[in-house]
Specification:
This protein has 432 residues and is of the alpha/beta class. The protein has 19 helices and eight strands. Helix 1 packs across helix 2.
Length: 432
Amino acid sequence: MLKPSLQTRPLLRREFDQPGPGNAGQTHRQITRAVRGDAGNKTREPWMDRAFAAAFSHLVYAQIWEDPMTDLQALALRADDRLITIASGGCNILNYLSASPARIVAVDLNAHHLALTDMKLRAVSHLPNQVTMARFLGQANTPHNRNAFDTWILPTLDAGSRQYWLHSLPGRRARVDRFSSNLFRHGMLGLFIRTAHRIGRFNGVNPAQLLEQPDTDAQAHWFDQTVAPLFQKPAIRWMMAQRPALFGLGIPPAQAELLAAHERSQIVDVILSRLRRLACDFPIRQNYFAQQAFALSYEHCEPDYLPPYLQPRHYANIRDGIGKVSLCHQSMTDRLAQESDASLDAYVLLDAQDWMSDEQLSALWTQIHRTARPGARVIFRTAGQPSILPGRVSASILNQWAYNADESAALHRTDRSAIYGGFHLYRKAGQR
């Protein structure tokens, strides 16, 4: 087999070190500040903040849990647009490249997420064709993937990246072998889903049966008859009421409290409601998020409803755009402070603002407003339904941004990930 040329694709711009003993402490400190808030925004039980920060300092999301089609509809990216986003599982960046923007800056406080994003970008750039790439990233459950890594990706890695991906964790295989053993089973979210499956099977419920349902009515009937009753069992309700049980969903204690306050309901009932929407509101073969939650696989997804980066028609645009991406181990606010005035067009904040104190929100939006071009768009999600910005971000800033609650609600209804309470789109005054 021919060896890859290292000069066939633009080099990645990477401003982070692969996670290791030398920078693990930095990651943990950054996440701790984000969870607790620089201004002392603490839960009533600070030990939970510390426990979450420790857990979140490892790989959390192997796949991002925000619907890229909703994002792309809201952002309406153009060829000269410059976008900044939180990296998380990294597949959102590949999805945004399908729209061919001019530049993408991806930031994250978790160096493991940046390492995974870097790997996904390299897979697109260096694997020989779309089929091999889709097998490596979309199936991620075949021994062929390790061979593909050794042949095409390994020669492109620097020493730090080699050490990270070839490192064998105690009692486990090398990190790169996650791509041969179902990548989506790994990370905190993967562990949470696998644990939920075990609990379901212990109680006589096979979650994968959702994929056998012929339409949304059948999906709802199956869910109401099999899954919903589990949430009435005292042991399960008690377990789900414990804040650490939600760490696997990436929900810190402060966000859990916010969620409960907004919904005016017990957390377990909120989770049930969101899970029902995920399982029932969209045809199962058109919702890869539900397929991941209930079967940890894209196997049954209709081709046109896969993530854009796995659709052959977007492959060329995404591959040609790899050189437009920069990866940075920073907070969104710190990175924006390094950007020029009126230099960015699109901002993707995920649900990170739910974690923030008023002071952190103010600092973030000061930088967003300074760096935004006229007509710039900001999108984010919230655990509760309403936008969290009014009354917390200065009116002198927010008054220069348009927010349409009806439009945001309509976009939220298209979001197949289904686990958030609200989707929000803000536009800066002026013409693009």
